[in-house]
Write a structure and sequence with these properties.
Length: about 260
């Protein structure tokens, strides 16, 4: 049977509802797979709250920030819902309006993450990211809203299976790797760097850095210089070799 561009056997179907819309998710057993990534280029990806992602090649992904963009309307609809009498038809209408707005925000965020992770998995053979403590960041009331709006956890989840499907590797640098503090030019490490500092100049070589771009470059260099292997394969497998089933692994770095 051919369904939605896939040839295979339908295994299951899950029906779900979001706001006023119904969806059917169908699981198909198929031998078709996305084209393998033949490009062995390495890219470092630094995630942030000011912009979604900064790539080591200089590409800046600002991020839609759908929750922030619609925060005023969310608050207005929430207040309107709280004023409606419980059990009334007006309350049902107000609840549906709020649910539809939440669904719109989630859809915009998920669409953006899918486009970004698919592009990374398609263009790069090795993608390097940081092991961000998302749970701890969400516990910080100053960061929680921005972190949730960007979708860091979902970004990593999508990147894991997409790099595996296309035969690439996902390297997750140790969370204590000081990617922002190390100069990507000379390797000197700064003593401290608060989050408020977005640009800085290296005291050793005088290089001026954008904080996020410098971090992305250090992540890329970490993969280039690393001798870590995943499941017996090199970090950059030869195009003729089959990719390992385990694509995500940690890099333990030596800190200066």
């Amino acid at each position: 049977m051919r369904l939605g561009g896939f040839s295979g056997k339908i295994m299951s179907a899950t029906v779900s509802r979001k706001a006023d819309k119904w969806f059917v998710s169908i699981t198909v057993d198929t031998e078709e797979t996305p084209p393998m990534c033949e490009n062995q280029a390495i890219v470092g990806v630094d995630l942030g709250v000011n912009r979604l992602a900064t790539l080591s090649d200089g590409t800046l992904i600002q991020g839609a920030k759908p929750h922030k963009a619609r925060l005023h309307r969310l608050r207005r609809l929430s207040r309107a819902l709280s004023r409606k009498q419980k059990g009334s038809k007006n309350r049902v209408k107000a609840k549906l309006k709020l649910a539809k707005l939440h669904a719109t925000i989630a859809t915009i965020r998920n669409d953006e993450l899918h486009k970004l992770t698919t592009s990374l998995a398609r263009q790069y053979g090795v993608v390097v990211i940081e092991d961000l403590p998302v749970k701890g960041m969400m516990a910080n009331h100053r960061l929680a809203r921005a972190v949730g709006d960007m979708g860091f956890h979902e970004f990593r989840r999508q990147l894991v299976y997409k790099t595996m499907m296309r035969g690439g590797d996902l390297i997750v640098a140790d969370r204590w790797f000081a990617s922002s503090k190390i100069c990507s030019k000379c390797g000197a490490k700064q003593e401290s760097m608060p989050l408020s500092i977005r640009e800085w100049t290296c005291l050793e070589c005088g290089s001026h850095h954008d904080r996020d771009l410098n971090a992305a470059k250090n992540l890329m260099k970490l993969a280039v210089s690393s001798t870590v292997t995943a499941c017996g394969e090199d970090v950059r497998p030869a195009p003729t070799e089959a990719a390992s089933t385990k694509q995500e692994f940690n890099v333990k770095a030596t800190y200066a």
